[in-house]
Specification:
four-stranded antiparallel sheet; Alpha-Beta Plaits; 3 domains; alpha+beta; about 260 residues; 9 helices; Arc Repressor Mutant, subunit A
């Protein structure tokens, strides 16, 4: 929708703010633990782990922290590390906005209680697993930075078996996001790099099939407070929402 920002755009802006403040080492380490647990604990043979390590290093996470996170994910540390589990929580924020919260926790009851307390204080409610995820598709996203020749991108995307792509432009520059099946993300990024596209990031993302438009300033403030509170929890790795908001209203929120 022209003149509107979707959650992916808002996340890019929030990421720049987070980078200026200093990345959350706990969340970056958590991403490494998850990746090491999902495949080989060796980044040369585990694309998800390699990507998580690259992001952690770019944010200044010490090598000792990275090595410890890999060991936790591989299950070689024992003790509390063995109790960590990945859980997806779901719920609704102010205005009926769907929210997916991905967590890495050693105490699911504590995490659920923390989430419920935020919803009770800020608005919305924590629901059952599956209450909103049916509105989303889990996809791999390959991010390209800089000016993009759309014809060349279309051809390269088709050759790589991508599902779709989106061009974007904001105050920080232009680029594109190319989407594919989650298992095909490594292949997609490699082929785009071979075609000389400036691939700067990749991630697995929940993409909404429908969105809720936020049109009220107070509702927008309340919604962003909920999301910021959720993201601040140590157990939460990622928050996804399905709202759109006008660029003017977003600017008024001073994100």
């Amino acid at each position: 929708m022209s003149g509107h920002s979707k959650w992916a755009t808002i996340k890019r802006q929030k990421a720049r703010v987070d980078a200026a403040r200093g990345k959350n080492f706990a969340q970056l380490s958590g991403a490494i633990i998850v990746a090491a647990r999902s495949g080989l604990p060796d980044p040369t043979g585990n694309f998800q782990l390699r990507t998580a390590i690259e992001k952690a290093k770019a944010a200044g996470v010490p090598n000792d922290n990275i090595d410890r996170a890999i060991a936790k994910g591989a299950g070689t540390l024992g003790g509390e590390a063995d109790k960590l589990e990945e859980i997806r929580y779901e719920g609704y924020g102010p205005g009926g906005v769907a929210l997916i919260m991905e967590a890495l926790t050693d105490n699911r009851n504590r995490t659920a209680a923390d989430l419920r307390a935020i919803f009770n204080k800020r608005g919305g409610n924590l629901g059952e697993t599956g209450c909103v995820s049916w509105m989303f598709a889990h996809r791999g996203a390959c991010i390209i930075s800089g000016a993009v020749d759309e014809d060349a991108l279309l051809e390269a995307s088709l050759e790589a078996g991508a599902d779709s792509y989106e061009l974007f432009a904001d105050e920080e520059g232009a680029g594109a996001e190319v989407f594919t099946e989650t298992a095909a993300l490594e292949k997609l990024c490699a082929q785009l790099k071979d075609q000389k596209f400036n691939v700067t990031d990749s991630e697995w993302r929940w993409i909404p099939g429908n969105t809720v438009e936020v049109v009220d300033l107070d509702q927008g403030k309340q919604l962003l407070r909920v999301i910021e509170s959720l993201e601040a929890l140590d157990d939460i790795q990622n928050v996804t929402a399905n709202f759109e908001i006008s660029v003017e209203l977003l600017a008024a929120l001073e994100l």
